[in-house]
Design brief:
Blueprint: H1 3-35, E1 37-44, E2 57-63, E3 70-76, E4 83-88, E5 99-107, E6 120-121, E7 128-129, E8 135-139, E9 141-142, E10 161-168, E11 181-188, E12 193-200, E13 207-212, E14 225-233, E15 246-249, E16 254-255, E17 261-265, E18 267-268
Length: 271
């Protein structure tokens, strides 16, 4: 065999080997992802869902079947069913295994705890094993409240809330209009997602505020130090900015029980 042919066949074998290795790794990764997630399609029942527009958010939530604590969450946006979904290990910082119960609801104003006209919700499912594919979930009723199993008392004592007063930076105060809403959010710094949301329809800066357990997403308890964000909302989409909206972000993490916080909206909101 000539030297050139030897080089050719060696390169070809090396290429085939690397390609096979890469494909195997991809298959392994996808298999592992499927084994630790639940996937399928979200649909609407007949006569339900006429008020959905693609700018709506859909919150997909997994709950521990025993404690009913929130185990994982994902926001789908834009959302216009039928929509495929997948939720699992990549949507939480806790180790998932076994079976979970799932809930899906739509949200028009950035506050999934507060039902609004046109929002819909589905049932809290029975237990679904991780690794399930092709699961069909139906949004089948107007969103008026969470399932009774998930409801808990509002317990906004000073010890489990954060309160203070918020104002706008003088250079940005002219951007606030009477039609704006004020959105107050607490973020888990590790998960990078909101754990509590409160929206004030009528406000005037400077404005007193308080946010705590009664504003928790899915009525799920939270603890520890959190990041506080407050912003103005002009289009009922707090996670989508439009010109003229402003925001403030806490410079350091804030523990529950903090009060008399002086908070400033000091940035243009760009997302």
């Amino acid at each position: 065999m000539s030297k050139n042919k030897l080089i050719f066949w060696s390169a070809l074998l090396c290429f085939v080997g690397l390609t096979t290795y890469a494909l195997w790794n991809e298959i392994t990764r996808n298999t592992a992802k499927l084994e630790h997630s639940i996937s399928g399609v979200i649909l609407t029942a007949p006569g339900v869902g006429g008020g959905i527009v693609k700018t709506d958010n859909a919150h997909v939530l997994l709950f521990d079947p025993v404690t009913l604590e929130l185990a994982a969450s994902r926001i789908l946006n834009p959302f216009l069913p039928p929509v495929t979904f997948s939720i699992g290990q990549s949507d939480t910082d806790r180790k998932l295994s076994g079976m979970y119960r799932m809930l899906v609801l739509t949200d028009k104003d950035g506050n999934p705890n507060r039902p609004s006209v046109g929002e819909i919700i589905g049932p809290l499912t029975q237990q679904i094993p991780l690794g399930t594919e092709g699961f069909k979930y139906y949004l089948d009723r107007p969103f008026k409240s969470f399932p009774e199993e998930l409801m808990s008392r509002e317990t906004d004592s000073p010890e489990n809330s954060i309160s203070g007063i918020v104002k706008a930076s003088p250079r940005l105060s002219n951007l606030v209009s009477p039609e704006d809403k004020l959105v107050i959010m607490l973020f888990d710094p590790e998960k990078g997602r909101p754990v509590a949301v409160k929206i004030l329809d009528n406000f005037k800066l400077p404005q007193k505020f308080s946010i705590g357990q009664s504003n928790a997403l899915g009525n799920q308890p939270f603890s520890g130090k959190l990041s506080l964000r407050i912003l103005t909302d002009k289009n009922n989409q707090p996670f989508q900015s439009v010109p003229g909206e402003i925001i403030g972000r806490s410079k350091k993490l804030i523990a529950l029980g903090a009060k008399n916080i002086e908070f400033v909206l000091d940035q243009n909101y760009v997302r």
